[in-house]
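Weekly sync notes, structure subgroup
Attendees: PM, AL, DS (notes)

Item 1: joint prediction request from the bench team. They want all two components modeled as one assembly rather than separately. Inputs as received:
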Amino acid sequence: MATSTFLYTIYIRTTPEKLWDALTKPEFTRAYWVDCWHDSTWEQGASWKLMIPDGRVADSGEIVEIDKPRKLVVKWQNEFQPEMHAEGYSLCTYELEEAGDMTKLTIRHEIEVAKSKLIEAVSGGWPVILSSLKSLLETGDALEATKHWPKDK
Amino acid sequence: MTEMTTESTVYVIYIATVPEKVWAALTSSAFTTQYFFGRSVESDWKQGSPWILRKPDGSVDVSGEVRQSDPPRKLVVSWNIDWAETKLPECIVTYDIEPAGENLVRLTVTEAHPTPIPANLLEGGRKGWPMILSGLKSLLETGKPLNIPVPEPPKEN
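Output from the run, pasted for the record:
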């Protein structure tokens, strides 16, 4: 079956535990993920939502696999763009590996759709979000460009 | 026989700095020795000039030609691995340095293979670029490089 995949690796000077918190806790994600936050109890099978600051749901799905602080797999469907919503569920896998005084973070986001609009969109989004996350953990400040939800969306 | 490919590897990273500093970090050994597996660079960075990437032991790692030079926005170099047992076709590496807001740069590195190469050789760039560019970002934002060990080169078979 045709698949669209986004794959990205970034090295961050932090521990897997701190990176896990930064990826999952609202007080961190709101600082670097355009003010969005995850709504989940973070247990296998639990529901998951990525919330937009104005209360809309950006994406929703469920936790497929969770192994804190090493691996997280989320079933992920877009909820606010009809064209992307129609593609159904994607799968997003986060892997955190300790590498000396750093953590190697690998994101694999894929969907069984050829030339997926969702994967095209996240391919533009993930690099700036993850670059901002790295800045936040290494310098204490996220990138200005990712601190707020864009006014026109 | 391994599968042959002309697929490109593209890596995008955002750095809180200005384009001039990214250009300096890509073209000066004072920076590259700190984030590019200890390697130094040699060139006058003018279009048509040779360039060299040198290992810490002084041997040549990569050599090529500057194909396009538009400081501080774009640098294109040809890339020939000088230590491989069998001669590999050259690849083309493009660095696009774009302003993406106040004190923010989007750096896009594209490793293109106009001549087909064995697909497993893409692994070198796919593993290497995230290490190199994560280190470059840390160096420019914090003044401190990452402690990244030198990876083993990919096997040809």
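Discussion: Helices of chain B lie at 19-27, 29-35, 122-142.
Action: AL to compare against the crosslinking data before next sync.
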